[in-house]
Amino acid sequence: xxxxxxKLSAGVPLNIDEFKKIVENENSSFKAEITDMAVxxxxxxxxNKIYIxxxxxxxxxxKNDCYYCGLRRSNQNAERYRLTKEEILECCNQGYQSGxxxxxxxxxxxxxxxxxxxxxIVSEIKKQYPDCAVTLSLGEKSYETYxxxxxxxxxxxxLRHETADCEHYSKxxxxxxxxxxxxxxLEDLKSLGFQxxxxxxxxxxxxxxxxxxxxxxxxxxLKPHMVGIGPFIPHHxxxxxxxxxxxxxxxxxxxxxxxxxxxxxxxxxTTALSTVDEYxxxxxxxxxxxxxMPNLSPVLxxxxxxxxxxxxISGAEAAxxxxxLKAKMNNIxxxxxxxxxxxxxx
Length: 346
Ligand code: 5AD
Fold this sequence. Notes:
By secondary structure, this protein is of the alpha/beta class.
């Protein structure tokens, strides 16, 4: 283990067995060492700055049927909504005033947002807020569609790979969804010059230690600019309703490991993490994360975008209550900044 930690801190790539060994040693005395190294690494590169992103959940319609997600098309009980261009622009307006310089438009795979509609929205935001970054998180699209998004001015794209193991992927998704398509999308996005974000859930059903090692190996190869890691949380209207939620400590440990594999990565302390743990945001930052994504969606729609049960949407999760978040971050020695928050190695 000592040798592996040495390699990790020196930026030497690890193999699958080494990653497996690290994950298996979560409860060992090495954990504190890894956390310390991760925090030092992020401080060296990003100081005590925390970047914020205004999350605008533009649609709860989805054509996919992922077994874990509350927005899956088979969920008849999900309340569906979609935002108009005007509503989205109003979110940006409020967000800009609160200090946000990145807007993330996330939604289910919703055919209403044709390429024409989406590029119109993206270019309007870029026109009105030229000092802001636009991030999209709208799922799997063709190369041509991604190209249009990019030409309209989108800067970044988030698409979690969910799991880097084909077999595990097929246990989380219906057969029409393939890990190979997901990976191709990430490659396409990268080649188009997007800053890309991948990531996975911790403790998703049937996940093994080996699977997590594969996720780490995949991230090491892909080198995404952003990595989203959050615990799986069951949703009562999905096939996984009775599955246990992912573990906070393991999630934090993986955040630290990813910080060491990809020192420059922008890593959020996710909403899922603060849903399972009251101090999730703080703990995420103290494990090596450096991004927080408060909710900037219209308040009336917020409770309809339910990927999982009990999703945290109030207090420090809410963009309009950014002061609460600022105070929380100050309390642990960090500072929220008004900044696009691009990766420092771009
Ligand atoms: N628990 C935790 N995270 C989830 N996501 C979707 N459903 C759940 C769930 N039940 C995550 C997926 C997706 C991101 C938008 O939300 O990783 O990529």
